[in-house]
Amino acid sequence: MRLMVTGGAGFIGSHLCERMAGKEWEVVAVDNFNDYYDPRMKHRNVEGLGGNPRFLLIEGDILDRTLMEDVFRRYAFDAVVHLAARAGVRPSILDPLLYQRVNVEGTLQLLECSIRYGMPKFILASSSSVYGSNNPVPFREDADVDFPVSPYAATKRASEILAYTYHALHGIPVTCLRFFTVYGPRQRPDMAIHKFTRCVAEGKPIPMFGDGTSRRDYTYIDDILDGIEKSVERAEGYRIYNLGESRTVELGFLIRLIENALNRKAVIQRLGEQPGDVPVTHANIEKARRELDYRPHVSIEEGIPRFVDWFMAFLNEEHRSRRAESITGGKANPVQ
């Protein structure tokens, strides 16, 4: 069985590649190593897969039509897990055209290649952000999602609709997974848990938007991987599933968990509300439980110490690398 993972060197993608290659799938990862955050982190994410004969990394852009057609033609995939995207609510407000191009046109490109070359199962990474700010919680998959409050959310909803259109026209099996704030080792540095942990560890102020009462449904990476894997196994028709822990955590409580794991006190920099942010996310996961046997098992109280353990090892390596660069005149490339 052969699997394509777009965004395969990213946070979720690299973990998924490791899991599936370890289960005797042949995994082809595609990643363009863009500079949204330090590309060296992405190279480090996949360096452990370098010697695995069941893993192939292709450095390239999903918007490169010639490349994508060649990859699909050559490898005859049984399934595609489409994780590649421009991420983040706030950056999408600053550059909506880029988000439309990568997230919507990129998805369309992959759907076109899929129907031309083998009709693989198509697993699309969507987002809890599609629910906007006015839906009752916990969010159900059949809620009204026609009122996104950021360009990022709008591009994710547009991708879901395009995927449905291709299913309706061509019969391709599509599963859309609405992720709820995924965290864990290798999390992107712009995400709150990673950013807050670094601030506390380095004695810098945490930028806290709002009064600290906003709530998020935080989902540990292992639970997300379980949901993706089961979606690959069971994909049929057109399905949408929430993948979350199905519990909300207040921002202030999250910061206290990080403080406890680091045994350091946070310095809070209070800021105003941010456009595009929503006050709460909360996943109703009954459909995923019923149809995928999805059962998250890592609580935030367990997950934050796991993340902090990884982060401190990462931070120590980062500091060693900087010292090496200062000695060698900046020529060291430590995280590749």
Question: What does this 3D model show about the protein?
Answer:
This protein is α/β, with parallel strands linked by helices and 336 residues long. It has a domain at 2-180 and 221-246 and 282-298: NAD(P)-binding Rossmann-like Domain (Rossmann fold), CATH 3.40.50.720. It has 11 helices and 13 strands. It has helices at 11-21, 39-46, 65-75, 89-94, 96-116, 151-170, 192-201, 221-234, 251-262, 286-292, 300-328; strands spanning 2-6, 26-31, 55-59, 79-82, 121-127, 174-179, 182-183, 205-209, 215-216, 219-220, 238-243, 249-250, 267-271. The strands form 4 sheets. Strands 3-2-1-4-5-6-11 form a 7-stranded parallel β-sheet, with helices on both faces. Strands 7-10 form a two-stranded parallel ribbon. A two-stranded parallel sheet has the order 8-13. Strand 2 (26-31), helix 2 (39-46) and strand 3 (55-59) form a beta-alpha-beta unit. The longest helix has 29 residues, at 300-328. The radius of gyration is 20 Å and the shape is globular.
Keywords:
single chain; 336 residues; alpha/beta; Rossmann fold; 7-stranded parallel sheet; two-stranded parallel sheet; 13 strands; globular
CATH class of the domain at 2-180 and 221-246 and 282-298 reads Alpha Beta
What's the SSE pattern? EHEHEHEHHEHEEHEEEHEEHEHH
Number of strands: 13
**CATH fold-level topology of the domain at 2-180 and 221-246 and 282-298:** Rossmann fold
Q: What kind of sheet is the major sheet?
A: 7 strands, parallel
